[in-house]
Design brief:
The protein has 415 residues and is an alpha/beta fold. The protein has 2 domains: 4-225, Rhopdopsin 7-helix transmembrane proteins (Up-down Bundle); 236-413, 2-Layer Sandwich (Alpha-Beta Plaits). The chain is 61% helix and 10% strand. The chain has helices at 4-25, 34-56, 62-87, 98-113, 117-139, 149-175, 189-226, 236-253, 267-274, 276-293, 317-332, 361-377, and strands spanning 257-264, 298-304, 307-313, 336-338, 341-344, 347-353, 383-385, 412-413. It has a 5-stranded mixed beta sheet with strand order 2-3-1-6-7, with helices on both faces. The radius of gyration is 32 Å and the shape is elongated. The termini are far apart.
Amino acid sequence: MMDAKTIFTTASVMVLANGTILAAIYRELPAALRPAASHWCLGTILVALGCVVFAFGEPLPRPLMLTIANAALVFGLTGYYVAIRRFHRLDVKPWLFLPAALVTVCIAWFSAVTPSFAIRMAVVTIVWTALMMLSVRVLANPALGQPSLARKILTAMFIAVGVYSAARGLLYLAVGVPEGFSIETGGNWLNVLSAMLMTLLPVVGTTAFLLMCSDRLRRGLERAAATDYLTGLANRRSLAQASADAFFLASAEGRDLCVAIFDLDKFKRINDAYGHDAGDRALVHVANRLRENMGPAGLIARTGGEEFVVLFQDLARSDAFARAERMRVAVEDGGFMLEEERIGLTVSAGLAFRRKSDRTYDDLLRRADSALYRAKANGRNRVEIAPHEADDEPETGAARERAVFVTPPAISTIE
């Protein structure tokens, strides 16, 4: 059976190799993940240093060897905790390093000045266990990240090290280990297990940490592929999937389904008069007003340019029209400010409701698009409803009877 010194030697080589791999791929990570990766890499190097000192530090004075080795290990574990906090975009305060500094001072004092294995073990046990549990607390918080296999593995590793640290400390203190006891040598099973654990945490933990980084990158790419870069709304791709699912469900179960197309009126003149940056700001403003007023039964997407599409599910025709009208009014009354000047913005909208004869979502969308064109032709800033089944004439909202939008004198309107 290998003794603890041999395992510490093997551990130092494996951990250093692991840290080297992480350092090599550091530059390939996005800037947002680099602070976390750098602290994890530093933690791994410090743990490796602690293993090296335990394995080859025998020629050094024992108090010096114990101080260096334990300081490297506890600062390395602190580096892991800081990396976990950085990964989850949590603040890192200088006081987080105080426990590691306390351990270093205690090890130095109670090995050189007033030798006491029991105090050294108690201090190390408390700080190690606390660092592990604090890391678990962050990883297990559902508000800080989505569950994944990598997160579960890393959480399990921290729990295992924390539980073992507490159990080992209590056992050593309970049996009354003599002052000359050396945990880095000999074949005692606790010594061997300690050495093995210090190998598993950096190696398996680093693999799990890199998988967490990979999960975040993948989810970020998926989110980017499904989200409009300017407004944060769903994009055309997301809408296509959602609308196909909604149409299938509505057709299979006979549910109500409405699609509304909103188009910002005279958007080109905003770009021409104020520039494209102002146009982008106007689009974001309109997107926010529409999103805030569409209610819980809708999905809104920007499908290109100044056009937005909303899916209303399980809403009666009158309710869907009321929602669309509320959204239109919200844009009209939104108070868009540009260079200390209030600019009047309005939208036109076309609504269409699922017919029994509709074969695909595109049939519904085409009717909504035709209704939008009628809204534009009838003066803009209004909601039009496409004919439904046997309707002879298109239904028109109250906006048809209302006077064409006139901006108060204090407001500039792009004509």
